[in-house]
Design a protein that fits this description.
By secondary structure, this protein is of the alpha/beta class. 51% of the residues lie in helices and 11% in strands. The longest helix is centred in the last third of the chain and has 24 residues.
């Protein structure tokens, strides 16, 4: 691996199934060893089976540091890995809070083969990164495409880009490697480089990316990061007092000493009263 600061926190998403393919377990085990050897913190969902189980076992055997984030419903059946000492238990009606804590505790994300929970974490991370949300804009995401597991997902992304649905190249959303060693090396390089770049440069990059997602061609620099949207002022037409006064004066002049003028004036008043009553009737009761 390239020389980087040892305080990098690596978030890892992957399966928790007991039936996980051995090739996936082997890569996860190797990743656990590498994280411990490099002094990186391993952040994951605290599972004791599948990819997460192999990852946590290997990292703990090498005396590595592990931070586990688990939902309280999984603690009922002792679903957490027994070797994890730094365990954060979250609640909620779904896994939103768990994902948020996992993203927040990580400097980069590695995604190994997994099921629908892993898919949810992957796409949530990519979506948040593209929109500048959840503090994901500067965090690299790398898929470890073991045995072509994610080929279908990557083809779908590429199709979306070719059809003009994605505003950026696929590489801007997610990077792909075939093994954990190369994936970790890429993440380490990205994190190290991002720490050398002034924060203002990062903010400008985020603004351009978000503006492009919102289909704004050339955003103006702003003092603080925000979604750049074109604000169209609402034109409010004020009543022309002079014109109304003139009209009323004209009616009055025509009505002086004239029967027909009186009829016109009466009709005008009647219309105004009718409109007023109609508006009053349409107003909801305020109790």
């Amino acid at each position: 691996l390239r020389s980087t600061s040892p305080d990098m926190r690596v978030g890892v998403f992957g399966s928790s199934s007991k039936d996980t393919k051995q090739a996936y377990l082997d890569e996860a085990f190797r990743l656990g060893e590498l994280l411990a050897e490099r002094g990186y913190t391993c952040v994951n969902g605290a599972g004791k089976f599948g990819v997460m189980g192999a990852l946590n076992t290997a990292c703990s055997q090498k005396n590595g540091k592990i931070v586990g984030v688990i939902h309280s419903i999984f603690c009922v059946d002792a679903g957490e890995h027994p070797f994890i000492k730094d365990l954060l238990v979250v609640g909620g009606i779904d896994l939103y809070e768990r994902k948020l804590q996992l993203f927040d505790a990580s400097d980069c994300i590695l995604v190994l083969p997994g099921g629908v929970g892993t898919f949810d974490e992957l796409w949530d991370g990519i979506s948040s990164k593209s929109l500048g949300m959840k503090d994901m804009s500067l965090k690299p995401i790398c898929i470890v495409n073991v045995d072509g597991f994610y080929d279908g997902s990557l083809q779908q992304l590429q199709r979306a880009h070719e059809d003009g649905i994605l505003y950026q190249e696929v590489e801007e959303y997610v990077h792909v490697e075939t093994n954990v060693a190369d994936a970790l090396a890429w993440c380490a390089e990205q994190v190290e480089n991002s720490r050398k770049v002034p924060i203002d440069t990062h903010l400008r990059k985020i603004e351009r990316m978000v503006a492009k997602n919102n289909n704004v061609p050339h955003p103006e620099p702003v003092e603080h990061f925000a979604v750049h949207r074109e604000h169209v002022p609402i034109e409010v037409t004020e009543p022309d007092v002079t014109e109304s006064s003139t009209a009323r004066s004209s009616v009055s002049k025509r009505s002086d000493g004239s029967f027909y003028g009186s009829l016109v004036l009466a009709a005008s008043v009647g219309v105004l009263v009718g409109l007023t009553l109609a508006r009053v009737c349409k107003c909801p009761s305020r109790g």
